[in-house]
Amino acid sequence: MTETDPAAVAEFIGNQRTDHRIPYRLACGVLGVSESWFYKWRDRPTTAREVRRGQLSDAIRQIFEGSGGTYGSPKVWLVLVREGWRVSVNTVARLMAGLGLAGRKIRRRRGLTRRGRRPAFPDFVRRDFTADTPDQVWCGDMTEITTGEGKVYL
Length: 154
Prior knowledge:
Elements: H1 6-20, H2 24-31, H3 35-42, H4 48-66, H5 73-82, H6 89-99, E1 144-147, E2 150-153
Helix pairs in contact: 1-3, 4-5, 5-6
C-alpha cells in the first residue's frame, strides 16, 4: 500500500462492488488489505488538505487552459502567487504532472549565420568602408524580412 494512494485503493474497492457486484471481502482479499482498513478509509471524511488540493488543481487547470496550453509550472506558479495562493513551485509542478499538463517548449529563432562552418572571405578593405570617390568600395549585407507569404532576403 506504500506505492499507491490509500484513498484511491479504497475508492477502487468500493467501485468494484457497485460496478461489478464484487463483495468488499473478496476485493480486499485480492488486493491484500484488511476489511477494517477499507472501512476506515471509506468512511473517512475528506480532509481540508484534500479539499485545498482539489481547489488548487482546478485553479491550475483554469490558468493553463487560459494560456492556451503554453504556460509551464513556473509561470502557472507565478500567476497563482499573484492571485493570493501560498504554494511552492514543486507542488505546482507535481500537480500539473498528475493532471497531464505540460507547457509548450519555446522555440528559439535560428539565425542564418553559422560560425566556423565556412572559411571567412578575405577582408580587402580592412573594415574601412569610407571612399573618396563613388564606385571605389562595395559592401553588402543580407537581411531577412518575414512577410505573410514567407521570408524575403534583401
